[in-house]
Amino acid sequence: MRPGSQPNRTLWWLLLLPFVALLVPGLYARQSPELFGFPFFYWYQFAWLLVTCGLTAIVYLRSR
Question: From CA 26, how far away is CA 37, in angstroms rounded?
Fold first, then answer.
């Protein structure tokens, strides 16, 4: 970050997306649709793991 510049704190709101998406397991705790034999419950969480890594990288790189 350059001296005298303010970090873009609006990007930090992106980090709330995974939290909200996984907040209520009752919304995604189901068997179908399956992906490669894995129930929706498992691959939905794994997909959010990958999305969260990407969002964290974006926020980190933009706020440095």
Answer: 21
The residues facing 35 across adjacent strands are 38
The reported pTM is 0.81
Measured at the CA of 19, the angle between CA 15 and CA 24, to 5 degrees, comes to 165
Mean per-residue pLDDT pooled into runs of 10, the chain (64 residues):
63 93 95 96 97 96 87
For residue 44, count CB atoms less than 10 angstroms from its CB and return exposed for 0-12, middle for 13-18, buried for 19 or more: buried
Is residue 45 exposed (0-12), middle (13-18) or buried (19+ Cβ within 10 Å)?
Answer: middle
- How far is the CA of 2 from the CAs of 31, 32, 40, 42, in angstroms? 49, 49, 44, 42
Which tokens belong to 21?
Answer: 């998406």
